[in-house]
Every structure is written in C-alpha cells, then in structure tokens.
C-alpha cells in the first residue's frame, strides 16, 4: 500500500497598520527568512484559534482574526542528508485586529525578531521570503480579498472526538 499524501496545514496572519505589514524574521533550513506570523495548526484547535496562537507566540501581540484572506497551496523540495524532502503546505491566511503587545513574552524558538515593512519593501525582498505565499497573501489582502470566517467550519468533534455522532 502506498503512503497517503498529507499536506502540512498552516495558519498565517496578514497584519497591516499604517501601510506597514508585521512580519517575522525566522531561522529556517535555508537561512534567515521573512514570513508572516505563521505556523502549523495544532490538534484540537480551529484555524482561527491556531492563527491567534501563532501570532502571539511569534510576535508577542494578541491577534483576533476577523476574516479569511484566502486558502493557499504551495510545494517545495529541499535536499536533506537522507535524500530529497518534498513538502506541500495548505495555508489558511487571516487578517484581523492586532491587540496588546506583551513586552514580557519571549518569542517562539527560531524567531529572531519582528519587523514592519511596507508593501514595496516586502516586494523588494522576495529572495528573503520563507515561501511565495508571503507575497501572495499580502497582494490578495491589498486587492481587498476578504471572506467571512464562517467559510471555514470547525465541527464540535474537533474538541470532543469521543462524542457520539
């Protein structure tokens, strides 16, 4: 039997204030890269919950998603010691309201710092992006792409899988 293909599900935030976008500089196998505050969806959390958690962990800001910017697929391959790794990401990108900053909070492991960049600065640094989705999410946001949060339904079984159907 062949192994079932499973994309890595991630959540990301497109956060803009006064013409600047909040990004993180993070350590990756490819070096120091720019990314939206983003990360993997954890078990027993909705995509909006995961997005809020990731923003807090990576930036020390509270964040409340208010709409979905889009759903994105990307794929890349990287050389590893044991061969070629093939990775596909399914990203849920949200925009919303940036809340309070917690100056006492440490940033997540691997996050070097947060940066605020204009759209033009972000476009000019594509070679430093973690993936092409960083730019695509921003461009979709700037075009006004917005979907209601209800577009992504999280069933109660997510939090209580033992409940009878």
Automatic annotation (TrEMBL):
The keyword Magnesium applies. It comes from the Bacteria. Its EC number is 3.6.1.-. Keywords: Hydrolase, Magnesium. The keyword Cell membrane does not apply. Residues 4-139 form the Nudix hydrolase domain. Its cofactor is Mg(2+). Belongs to the Nudix hydrolase family. NudJ subfamily. This is Phosphatase NudJ. It comes from Rhodoferax saidenbachensis. The lineage of its organism: Bacteria, Pseudomonadati, Pseudomonadota, Betaproteobacteria, Burkholderiales.
